Amino acid sequence: IHLVTDMERKKYIKIIYAIITLYAVILICFTAASFFITKNIMACLICAAGIIMSCIPSYALYKADDKYISGIILRLSELMDVLVQIDGKDIFPDSEDTVLSKLQYKVIKLSRILKNNSIREKQEHEDIKKLVSDIAHQLKTPIASLKIYSRLLSDELLSAEKQREYIDILCTCIERLDFLSENIIKTSRLESGLINLDMQKQSLNETVLKAVKDIYVKAKQSGIEIKYDEKDKINIKHDRNWTAEAIFNLLDNAIKYGNKGNTIYLSIRNFGMFAEIAVEDENGGISYNDRNNIFMRFYRGKNSSRHEGLGIGLYLAREITNRQGGYINFSIKENKNRFSIFMFRKAE
Fold first, then answer.
1. CATH no. for residue 304?
2. 113 lies in a domain?
C-alpha cells in the first residue's frame, strides 16, 4: 500500500510541477509579446502579475491536496498497524458514509474472520496433538501386552491352563485395538464427508432395538440392566445403521461410567414434531465443568482417565443426529444424566 501510494504521489507532484512550468513559460512568452507589441513596461508587469496571481490558487490547491493525501496515507498506515495487531479499532469514523469508512469496515471484518480462523486452526491443531497423544497412550498397553504374552505362549513347557489364560488376554488386547481403530475410522469418514446417509422411512423402534442388541453383551458383563420403555410406534425417515450407532454410543457411555447393579432407562416416544429417544443412567450427575464440553471431539472428563476411550463417542452421536436434521439434548434430573435424541418427524 505504501509503495503504490508513494508512486501515485510522485506522479501527482510531477503533474503539478509540469503545470507550474507551463505557467512560467506562458508568463515569459506573454510578457515578452506584450512588451514588443505595446512597448509599455507597466502593461507588461500588470500582465505578468495577473498570470502569477492566477498561479497562486493552483499552488494553494496543490498544497491542500498534498496535505489531505498525506493525512489519508497516515491514517491508512495506522489502520494497517491496527490490522497487523488484529485489534479491530476504528481509525475512520464509522458514522460517516464515506468510501474509506466502508473500506475500513470490510477490512476489519476480514481481519476478524482471519483471526477466528487462526484460532480455530490452532485449536484443531491442539486437538490433533491431543488425539495423537491419546491414541499413543491407548495403544501402548495392548501392544505391550501382545508382545509379552505372545512370547510367553512360545514356551513349549507352558501348561494348557496358562495357554488358555494368555490367549484370552491376547483376545482382549485385540478387541481393544479393534475398538480404537473402528472409532478413529468412523470419525474420519464422518468428518471428511465420505459417508452417504441412507435415509429411508422405517421403524425407529427397530433401530433402537438394534442398538440394544449390539450393546447387550457388554451391559450383561458389566452387571448393568437396560430397561426399555416403548411408548409409541414411530416410523420416520432416518439412516438405520448410523442412528443405531448414535444410540449405541449413548448406551456405551452409560455402561462405561456405570457401576455394577445400575440400571439404564431407555425410552422412545412421540414428542410433538419430534421423536425422542432418551437414555437415562444412574451414574451421578456429570460435573458442572464438563457439561459444556461433553459433545466436543476428543474431550474426556476429569474422571475418565481410568476408562478406555478417545472422547469421540458422544461427539459421533451428536454429528450423526445433526446430519439427519435432529439434535441431542443433555439434562440432569435427581442426579441422573439424561441424553435425548430428537429426530424431526417430517410430513408422513
1. 3.30.565.10
2. no
pLDDT band of residue 31 (cuts 50, 70, 90) is low
Per-residue model confidence as pLDDT tens digits over 215-269:
888 888 889 999 999 998 999 999 898 899 899 989 988 888 888 888 999 999 9
- Output 184 or 326, whichever has higher pLDDT: 326
Structural domain boundaries, residue 281: 200-344
Residue 91 inside a domain? The answer is: no
212 and 185: one domain?
Answer: no
Domain boundary, last residue among 191, 221, 242: 191
Quick one: three-class SS letters along the chain?
A: CHHHHHHHHHHHHHHHHHHHHHHHHHHHHHHHHHHHHHCCHHHHHHHHHHHHHHHHHHHHHHHHHHHHHHHHHHHHHHHHHHHHHCCCCCCCCCCCCCHHHHHHHHHHHHHHHHHHHHHHHHHHHHHHHHHHHHHHHHHHHHHHHHHHHHHHHCCCCCCHHHHHHHHHHHHHHHHHHHHHHHHHHHHHHHHCCCCCCCCEEEEHHHHHHHHHHHHHHHHHHCCCEEEEEECCCCEEEECHHHHHHHHHHHHHHHHHCCCCCCEEEEEEEEECCEEEEEEECCCCCCCHHHHCCCCCCCCCCCCCCCCCCCCCHHHHHHHHHHCCCCEEEEEEECCEEEEEEEEECCCC
Kindly tell me if the per-residue pLDDT of 164 is higher than 50: yes
284-331 pLDDT tens trace: 767 666 777 677 766 666 665 565 666 778 888 888 888 888 999 888
Question: Hunting for cell 501402548 — which residue is that?
Answer: 140
Q: Does residue 213 share a domain with residue 177?
A: no
CATH number at residue 183: 1.10.287
Split at pLDDT 50, 70, 90, the class of 5 is very low
Chosen domain end from 174, 191, 208: 191
In this prediction the pTM is 0.54
Give the chain's domain count. Answer: 3
